[in-house]
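Response to reviewer comment R2.3. The reviewers asked that we include at least one raw input/output pair. We reproduce the pair for Adipose-secreted signaling protein here without editing.
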Amino acid sequence: MAGSLRIHVDQDLDKERAHVHFEEANDSFGKDNELVVQHVGEEEVAIHMGFLKLNHLYEVKVSVPWDSCDILGKHRNLESYQPSNVPNLHCQLVSIVPEESAFILTVHLKAHKEKLQEESLWLAVPGLQRQLKITYLARVLGKNKGTPLLRNGVRGIAVDEDEESEASDWQGFESQH
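Raw output as returned:
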């Protein structure tokens, strides 16, 4: 027959060979879903949060090792760290809790723009005239772009309804005829 396709299936194939196998040693998905803390400079730390959803408010709780940047290794008195005078509307400090090898930093962060979002929080060290810069980085998915798998330490706490959604009470402009 011209134009036909015949497929022969060997019924005697070993079931083990017929299945796809993945090396678990190289598979980090699901096993390493942690926030990534990266040393950026002497006075800066970056926290990579993965994917977030647009117009959602998140609580982000991360353990920042004392040795993650130089200023932290030298000045471990967290009671002296204060938020800088310039507030960030989208990233607000909730708490700083010291531990032996790290400190736990908790912030509320609003995902307010699609694609790459970068929010910085500055902690001033009184008497030293130096500041620790903590930068939060996330990829933000827009409306109808899917639901992200949140990393450990990130939890959704609120959703701002989109102004253009059906939840809005705005009726629009009346046409004048």
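Residues 26-30 have pLDDT under 50 and may be disordered. The radius of gyration is 24 Å. Further pairs are available on request from the corresponding author.
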